Amino acid sequence: MQVELLDKLSASDATIILERLPEKIRTALICRAAEIEYPIEAVIEMAIASFLDTEALGFADCKPGRGQ
Question: Which of 40, 66, 56, 55 lies closest to 7, judged by CA?
Answer without folding.
Answer: 56
